[in-house]
Design a protein that fits this description.
The chain has helices at residues 5-25, 30-35, 37-56, 59-64, 70-82, 89-114. The chain is built from 6 helices and no strands. 78% of the residues lie in helices and 0% in strands. It has one domain (5-112).
């Protein structure tokens, strides 16, 4: 069954903003990341958009793809927005360099397999 078009828009937001974050942190060490406030802020914003898009995906879509940790993705967004004073730059860097590239691949695979052409 083809994906709901609202879900497709959200999935494309995840890949678009996730890819922007990947480009921002490409070749950056954790120490460089922590020392550069512009890179940190841009990365946080991209992760926030990814988390918001994940949060807005339909419940049926998220239930049909339980291997992706949707609640954790949304929780990261909520942490960055609402509990920003307690965010750990090391965790943000790990999300940006490890978890986000995996999510982008998973979402791209879903789009390729399930989305009807635009």
């Amino acid at each position: 069954m083809p994906l709901d078009q609202d879900d497709v828009v959200r999935l494309r937001d995840i890949t678009t903003f996730g890819s922007k974050v990947a480009a921002i942190v490409a070749g950056v060490t954790r120490e460089q990341f922590a020392a550069d406030s512009k890179t940190l802020f841009a990365t946080c914003y991209g992760i926030q958009v990814v988390g918001e898009a994940a949060w807005k995906l339909s419940a049926s879509f998220k239930q049909s793809h339980p291997s992706i940790p949707w609640p954790l993705i949304s929780s990261m967004r909520h942490r960055l927005v609402h509990d920003y004073g307690r965010t750990d730059e090391t965790i943000i860097f790990q999300v940006a360099t490890v978890h986000l590239p995996l999510l982008i691949k998973q979402v791209m695979d879903i789009i390729a397999a399930e989305a009807s052409p635009p």
